[in-house]
Hints:
Structural class: mainly alpha
Order of helices and strands: H
Oligomer: single chain
Mean pLDDT: 91
Amino acid sequence: MDMQAINEQLIELKDYVKKRFDENDNRFNEIDKRFDEHDKRFDNHDKRFDRIETSLGTQAKKLLDHDDHFKENEERRDRIHREVMEGQDKMMKILVRLDQERTFCNKRFERHEAEIKKLGGFKKN
């Protein structure tokens, strides 16, 4: 082979390689465009996740606030229950005392009536 033929083959090979590189570059550019589109979609997803995360944070805070309110309500309910039970205990003590006084008074009246009968009853004027 002569030099001219070798040069032509080298030029053809160079053109072929350049053409293949250009094709690959175009393919890479298309892939880069697709990656850019995916990046935009991921950015949108990130924004959505940020909104959801913020919302979850707000909901968690509200949940903790409600939990505090439940604890306060439970403490208040327990306090009121204690006060009611203490009041009922006091009333029961009063009622027991009154019942005992009534029983003692009735027994005393029965004894007085028995003594009055022994002494001859009531005298009429």
